[in-house]
Structure formats: C-alpha cells, structure tokens
Write a structure and sequence with these properties.
- The complex is a heterodimer of chains A (about 170) and B (about 575).
- Chain A has one domain.
- In chain A, about 70% of the residues lie in helices and about 0% in strands.
- Chain A is built from seven helices and two strands; from the N terminus they run E-E-H-H-H-H-H-H-H.
- The radius of gyration of chain A is 25 Å and the shape is elongated.
- Chain B has about 575 residues and is an alpha/beta fold.
- Helix content of chain B is about 35%, strand content about 20%.
- An eight-stranded mixed sheet of chain B has the order 13-23-22-14-15-21-16-20, sandwiched between helices. A five-stranded mixed sheet of chain B has the order 3-2-1-4-5, with helices on both faces.
- In chain B, helix 7 packs antiparallel against helix 11 and helix 8 packs across helix 11.
- Chain B is globular, with a radius of gyration of 23 Å.
- In chain B, about 50% of the residues are buried.
- The chains are: A mainly alpha (about 170), B alpha/beta (about 575).
- At the A-B interface, strand 2 and helix 6 of A face helix 3, helix 4, strand 5, strand 8 and helix 13 of B.
- The complex binds fe (ii) ion (2 copies).
- One fe (ii) ion binds next to helix 4 of chain A.
- One fe (ii) ion (FE2) binds next to helix 6 and strand 6 of chain B.
C-alpha cells in the first residue's frame, strides 16, 4: 500500500517519531503501561472512533483515482470499528454507566484538544518567528566578527580533548 | 565497575555497557520501543540496564556520550548562518530543535540515575567511530583509521593513526558540507527512498544500471578534492528537502514510480553513477590516507562504510593490504566507541578488550523463564534437535533462530535470524517476497561454513575478515550458479557470511546440512520488513505468527509456536 500511494509522488512513510510530538506516546512509557486497563479501553474506544472518521474523510479523496488503496483502507476501517466496539464494550462492562459516560466524554475532549494543538503548531508559529529571526540575526553578527578556526590536524587527540565539555 | 557508552538523538539510539571483564551488553532503543530507528534518548534501554545490572553511582565508572552535543548542533548552524536570509527556514528549524537535541544529555540521564557530574564524559563524533573500529583488530599501530559519514560535529571525513601507547593522531579532516555521505543520501532522496533506510536500496539498485551519468555527477561532487557543489543541494536551507532545483533540471522529475520499466532503468542508471562516484571518492580518500600515514592496512568506519558493494569493488583495485569495516560502522555502533573512549580516558594507555563480535545481551538475560512455556511448545529438547531442525530445513521449512548473544550491527548473523535451505528455490523466494516483504532487487544473503567458502565464492584476501559479519560482498563461482541460483545478485555477487565458531548452533546445523548434500543456508534478520529485529520472546512469538513461521531454534532445543 505504501508503494501504491505517494504524497507528492514521494514514498509515503509513517514516521513514528511524529506521534511522540502529538502526545500519543510518551518518551518513557507506553500508554497501556501507565493507564489502568479500564481507562485504556476507553482511551482506545474514543480515539479509534475519531481515527475512523478521519480515515473516512481521507479515503473520500482517494476513491476516484486510487480505487485499490481505497479498498484497502476500507478493510482497515472495518478492523478499526471492531477495535473501538470491543474496547468500549469491555469498558462498559467494567465501569458503572455513569463513570463510563464521563470518562468517554473526557477522552473525546482531550483528543479534540490534542488535534487542535497538533494542527495549530504551524499556525501559531507567526508569534515565535520574529523572535527566532532576531536571534538568528544576532548570532549571524557575532559569527561574522568571530573568526572561528577549524583544526584539520591534531597531534594528540586524547590530550587536546576536554572530556567534560560539550563543545 | 561499569563503563557505559551512549549514542542517541540523531539516528538509532543505542547503549553499550561493559565491565571489561566478560560482561558486555549492547542494546538499541528500538528493541524496546518497537519503533524502527528510534532516536529518542534511550530511556527504555537504560531502565533495562539499571534493573539487570543494578546500576547506581557507586558501580558506574563513567558514562560517555558519543559526541560533543553543542558542537554538533553548532557546526551545522554555523554554515547556514553565513546567509541568514536565504537559509532562514533551516535556521529557524534548527534553532527550535536546540532543546530537543543532546544538549540536555546530563539532565536526561539524571532523571534515571543519580550520578555525579564528573562521571559524565563526552567523546568526539569521529573519534567514537574510530575507537569502535578497535573492537575487531589486534595490532592497533598497524592500521590507519578512516572515518567517513554524512556529518558529525561538522566533520565529514577524518584520518587517524594510533600508536602502541594509544596516542591518537588526527592526520586530516574534511568539513561540512563537503560530504560524500550527504551526496549519496541526497541521491537516495531524489530517487524517492527514505534517507537512512533507502541507501541500501540505492546500492542494490545500482547493479541494474550503467554509470552513464558519471560526468554530470562529477560536476556535483569533486572526487579528487572532496568538495561538494552546493548549487545542487538544499540541505543547508530547507529542513525537509535536500536537493535543489538544479538537480531536478539535470535529471528530470524526482520520485518516479520504479515499477515502470522505463523509470526503473533510468533510476538504476542514476544509482549506478552515484555508486561509482562514491567508490572513486573512497579510493582517493584511501590513497590520501596512505600518503599521510604510510600504512596499507585500513579500518574504515562511519555510515558510508555500510556500503558493502563499495568495499567489494575497492578490493579489486589493490590499493590496500587489508580493509576492515566493523559490524556496525554507523552511529549506533558508536556507543561501543564511546565506552571505549571512557575507558581510554581513565586508563590513559589501554582500551577495552573485545573477545567476540556478538556484544549484545544473552537471550536468557532478556527473558523471564516462564515466557518460553507460555508461548512455545517443546518439540525436541534432546541432543538430536539439530538433526530434526536440519531435516525440516531440507524439506523446505523456514526456521527462526533465537539463541546465543545478540548481534551489534544492522545485520543478523545467525543468532537472531530466519533460516531456510538455499538450494530450495521456492522457499527462498517465498521467504524474501512473502514473509519478509522485501523488494525483488534485494536478494537474500547466504551463510555457510568457512571451510566451504572457496568452493562457491571468491574474494580478495584483503577484505576476507569482513565476511564474518556480512561486511562485504563476494563473487559467485559457477558451482554456486548450478545449485543456489536464487541467492545471487544480478551482478554476480553475494553478501555472504561465514561461520567459524565450532560451538555455535549455526555451525552445527550447517555441518549437519552437509550430510544431506546442502552446504548453504539463507540467512535474513528476524523481523518483518520495516520492524526492528525481535528482542524478547513476546516479539518472537508475534513475529512468527505474523510471518507464519512455525518452528524456532533456541539455546536448548527446537520449539513450536503455541496457538493461544
Ligand atoms: Fe485500531
Ligand atoms: Fe557518524
């Protein structure tokens, strides 16, 4: 499937590091390690539902010119639906109805904000851009006047290196 | 007392722990997080080590990071800031990433272990590569050490020598952006493959084409003076694309679909030309290293050294007496080099001892005992399990292996592999395309006993040592074509591995196979195409189920997956 569909004709690849940034995986633990099983089931249920909706929107784009991929995604969607259904059913059974509803709503809201946050990373950059640009201009002046030398050779590498320094 | 080396934040985080007294443990973050090429700070690795070796401030001699964090960030920034306006996108991107990089290494470590600040040391990028090279040789003063990679701390090529008292001299350095590694990566990206993964594909692809673009590419990279023509590149100003409009004008549209024959041929020609430029450059670099040092024995490290086709072709030019590329010459192997730096820095005139190339943890250190019974059925734990496994292989069965210590490099060397009988054409094709989901132009690699090597292959003696860890290609002889057709690359080469250690299970199986008239097995790493290699028994089980492999050899016998 990856070969079949190329965004801008470039090999489409899923870069897992991005999901760190969006807050789905934490750097030091997996979500299922941190959450209780019941809460995790709700998390999965809520998010799979949202993922399903997003995927449907995505496949509508593809339907016309990539029918094969469209079909493959449909299959994934069916799978997704099952995941969501199973985990929600599991959660319902193990929670009181009231706490189930509240927690589900909470996950949905969280997910909503997560998407807003992820999508706005670019939009809000205009605030930081001027600051960053002024830093860059400042550094460029400093560099211009500093004439930094590079060492092409080194007679005694171990003696000349400072092991505790980061520069 | 333990020495710990860490390589992280840039590409494939890894950690190496050693007491220089028989305990070695090399692990990668991707093994735990199951994210291929995971480059985050190796939290999970360190937690594993802390638990298994009870690490604390008292039993750690020092922890060494493989490069100078600020320098490596700064050197790239420094180049782009000469034209701040033109390169603003890249500069902003790079500035934003300041706090995500290795600058806060000490803080990250300290979250896990309370360690005194003076125990944290920082090596230098190319020095770590070079010191890792020591792990596979004996007489350090006989060699000249060449490091060549994309970029590390602003350096792209370095030449070192080391005398018997371990005084290290740097004879020459080339600087960013004049990098043959970045040149090759850019071509990789232009062809539509992913950087860091796709270079192997470009290398395989290059065998299908002719180097008809040699002249054009020589304009782009000056092979005699090691200078790059930046008109064709954009990696200094564009954070998401590395080639410029000019390359586009020269070769036409990028990212074509290589399943069409016309595109395939064109791309193969470009790949072939790029490969040729790389080989010429390396040849000149080796000559330069000889001129500077007077030594004809070479240890080559850095990401560029992973190009085994280059190693093979260079050996035919008789420009060196010996060329050794250690099993993991890229940045993840540098964790070993960093630990070596820490040791050398303390002891002044000694480096670590390395007894073998399998520096990873033993399988029994990784797993809880009960997991074996939870996931697997015992098939044969008696002494003749080797015979039973051999029988299965002869009958065309694909068998997974999971024994001994883990490998260091990107290639599985038998201990964490999938094997099948190389004489059985059908199972080889099935393994390659269906189970492993590789591309048809990347053939699988053979593994055989050292004693049988000459019967089927030929290789120049100067690079023969690399065969122990698949570090080079070699040529197929006619005898190989007769019987083991399916493992030969289109240009008549194979990425062969030879087995020497008579106590290893792989050796015993190969020995036994000979009774049935079959000398060669196919050996491929134990993972599905884009996943990391299996680590614990749970991964083993999941991967076997997904690839529909039924049998597995472990340290004590033959097992079968349970149906759970
Ligand atoms: Fe799902
Ligand atoms: Fe490197």
């Amino acid at each position: 499937m990856i070969l079949e569909y190329k965004i801008n004709k470039k090999e489409l690849s899923f870069i897992p590091n991005h999901i760190y940034n969006k807050g789905y995986i934490y750097k030091d633990h997996f979500i299922f390690e941190k959450k209780k099983l019941n809460d995790f089931a709700i998390f999965i249920g809520a998010n799979e539902e949202i993922a399903e909706k997003k995927l449907i929107a995505f496949t509508d784009h593809l339907k016309a010119h990539k029918p094969l991929v469209h079909k493959q995604i449909q299959d994934i969607l069916k799978d997704e639906e099952k995941h969501a259904e199973y985990s929600l059913r599991f959660a319902k059974k193990n929670h009181g109805l009231f706490s189930y509803k509240i927690k589900l709503a909470k996950e949905k809201i969280l997910s909503f904000f997560r998407h807003i946050y992820a999508n706005s990373l670019n939009k809000f950059s205009f605030i930081f851009k001027p600051i960053l640009i002024s830093i860059i201009i400042l550094i460029s002046f400093v560099v211009y006047f500093l004439n930094l030398k590079k060492n092409i050779t080194d007679d005694n590498v171990m003696k000349n290196i400072d092991p505790n320094s980061i520069t | 007392m333990y020495y710990i080396g860490i390589s992280a934040y840039y590409h494939e985080s890894s950690v190496f722990l050693t007491d220089n007294n028989g305990t070695d443990c090399f692990i990668k973050e991707e093994s735990f997080s199951r994210i291929k090429g995971d480059k985050n700070f190796p939290q999970r690795c360190l937690k594993f080590l802390i638990k298994k070796f009870d690490l604390k401030n008292d039993n750690i001699k020092s922890i060494c990071f493989y490069e100078k964090p600020f320098k490596s960030w700064w050197e790239i920034f420094k180049y782009s800031i000469k034209n701040p306006f033109e390169n603003r996108d890249f500069l902003i991107h790079h500035l934003k990433n300041f706090n995500e990089g290795s600058i806060f290494f000490y803080t990250d470590i300290n979250k896990l272990i309370n360690i005194s600040r003076n125990k944290i040391v920082y090596s230098s990028h190319h020095l770590s590569h070079c010191l890792y090279g020591l792990s596979v040789i004996k007489d350090v003063s006989d060699y000249v050490y060449i490091t060549c990679d994309g970029v590390g701390e602003g350096e792209t090529m370095s030449v070192y020598t080391i005398d018997n008292n371990f005084k290290i001299k740097k004879l020459w350095t080339n600087f960013y952006p004049d990098s043959i590694g970045l040149f090759y990566s850019t071509i990789t990206e232009y062809l539509g493959f992913e950087i860091n993964e796709g270079e192997f594909k470009v290398m395989s692809l290059s065998s299908f084409g002719k180097p008809i673009y040699e002249k054009e590419l020589k304009e782009i990279f000056d092979i005699n003076n090691f200078k790059i023509n930046m008109d064709y590149f954009e990696f200094h100003k564009n954070p998401s694309k590395s080639f410029s409009k000019k390359l586009y004008d020269l070769f036409g549209e990028p990212y074509l679909d290589i399943r069409e024959e016309k595109n395939f041929n064109k791309y193969a020609d470009i790949a072939s030309s790029a490969q040729l430029i790389l080989e010429h450059t390396m040849k000149n670099l080796i000559k330069k290293a000889y001129d500077l040092s007077g030594k004809r024995k070479i240890v080559l490290t850095g990401g560029v050294a992973l190009n085994c086709k280059m190693i093979h072709n260079l050996s035919k030019q008789s420009i060196f007496e010996e060329l050794i590329v250690p099993p993991s010459p890229g940045d993840s192997g540098s964790a070993v080099g960093a630990a070596n730096f820490a040791f050398l820095e303390k002891s002044k005139n000694k480096t670590l001892n390395f007894n073998n190339i399998y520096l990873g943890p033993e399988k029994k250190l990784i797993n809880k005992k009960e997991n074996k019974d939870n996931f697997f059925l015992k098939v044969n734990l008696t002494n003749d399990y080797i015979i039973e496994a051999t029988n299965k292989l002869i009958n065309g069965e694909v068998i997974a292996t999971y024994y001994g210590s883990n490998e260091v490099g990107p290639r599985s060397l038998g201990n964490t592999s999938i094997l099948c009988n190389a004489a059985n054409h059908e199972s080889v094709i099935n393994l390659n395309l269906n189970l492993k989901k590789r591309q048809h132009f990347q053939p699988l690699a053979p593994i055989l006993l050292e004693e049988d090597f000459e019967k089927y292959f030929s290789i120049n003696k100067s690079i023969i040592k690399n065969l122990e860890w698949m570090g080079t290609l070699c040529d197929a002889k006619q005898t190989l074509y007769n019987k083991y057709n399916s493992i030969i690359h289109v240009d008549g080469t194979c990425r062969t591995q030879i087995i020497k250690d008579k106590n290893s299970i792989t050796y015993k199986i190969l020995k036994n196979m000979k009774n049935y008239g079959s000398d060669i097995l196919v050996n491929t790493s134990f993972n599905i195409s884009k996943d990391p290699v299996v680590f614990d028994l749970f991964d083993v089980y999941v991967n076997m189920k997904r690839m529909k492999i039924e049998f597995i050899l472990m340290d004590d016998g033959l097992y079968q997956t349970k149906n759970l």
